[in-house]
Design brief:
The chain is an all-alpha fold. It folds into three domains: 68 residues; 65 residues; 119 residues, Transcription termination factor 3, mitochondrial (Alpha Horseshoe), CATH 1.25.70.10. 64% of the residues lie in helices and 0% in strands. It has 19 helices and no strands. The longest helix has 17 residues. It is globular, with a radius of gyration of 26 Å.
């Protein structure tokens, strides 16, 4: 193939793919940057990208977005790869809109045999009493979690069960996902950290059942949060066990600034009732300012 024909062919193929719906030029640049040797043979096959997706009901622009987000999905067979994967997603998510939402964030899903990875894991979670709506939510938020081997998922469930987790808790699936994100060694390191800071083994398990996401935080951040809160004199270990969500807050951007504001208001006797620290830290920046900064702006400036 001569150089001029070689250079023009991808543009023509992409123009055919997109039709009149989308201007091909920006997509052409995105797809072919550094990848000309890969895309020319693919886009000239009889089974071009448009024909691979034509039965999905997706628009040309949707197809373009999916392929440009992860072009390597084009290596998969239409009949044995892309089609079955999209069908599995549609069966779980219920609509093309849901499938597109997932694939625009995680187009690499189409590189997997979802009938042997995603679907069995979804069935395992459903058998545990986890609702379809929560599973769908987690597919959007944590797509990689569902690609673990089925035996691994069952192992994570076993570890969470052994901690006394209530399967009816809305945190149950979150706990399983957190367990999947760390090794046993990492878990043990964090347990030892909590114990060194004054938490008993039971305290740790209770706190984990209430806010498993705290174990997704680094050891350094956990230690900084606990030391900041305890040194404030406003909370003790038992309070943190009851409100472990505080340990997820940013020390520099939330805990310290809000503790300082509350302390200044208390020194000036401006607060009739000392508010619950957990509630204070859950407020948005705007709501916190409206309740504890704006009404006392003059006094705090003095």
């Amino acid at each position: 193939m001569c150089t001029s024909a070689y250079n023009e062919l991808p543009r023509a193929q992409i123009g055919f793919l997109l039709g009149k719906a989308v201007s091909p030029k920006p997509i052409w640049r995105k797809w072919l940057k550094g990848s000309r040797g890969f895309f020319v043979p693919i886009l000239t096959r009889p089974s071009n990208p448009k024909s691979r997706f034509c039965k999905t009901g997706f628009s040309d622009s949707d197809i373009a977005d999916l392929i440009s987000s992860d072009p390597w999905i084009l290596r998969r067979s239409a009949d044995k790869g892309l089609g079955p994967a999209i069908l599995v997603l549609k069966n779980i998510l219920g609509s093309n809109a849901g499938v597109l939402k997932v694939l625009k964030l995680s187009a690499w899903y189409l590189k997997y045999d979802l009938d042997k990875t995603l679907m069995p894991n979804v069935e395992v979670l459903k058998s545990l009493g986890i609702s379809s709506s929560q599973i769908v939510k987690y597919i959007f938020l944590f797509p990689r979690f569902f690609l673990h081997k089925q035996e691994s998922i069952k192992g994570f469930v076993k570890r969470v069960d052994e901690m006394g987790f209530d399967r009816k808790s809305k945190m149950f699936l979150y706990a399983i996902r957190i367990m999947s994100s760390m090794t046993l060694e990492t878990w043990e390191l964090k347990v030892k950290l909590f114990q060194s800071l004054g938490f008993s083994e039971n305290d740790i398990l209770v706190a984990f059942r209430r806010a498993p996401q705290m174990f997704a935080t680094s050891e350094k951040k956990i230690e900084e949060a606990i030391e900041t809160l305890l040194s404030s004199g406003k909370v003790d270990i038992s309070f943190l066990v009851s409100h472990p969500e505080l340990l997820i807050c940013s020390v520099e951007h939330r805990l310290k600034p809000r503790l300082q504001v509350i302390e200044n208001l208390e020194k000036r006797n401006l607060l009739g009732k000392i508010p619950n620290l957990s509630t204070i830290c859950k407020y948005t920046e705007q709501k916190f300012a409206e309740k504890f900064v704006v009404p006392y702006a003059n006094e705090l400036d003095q």
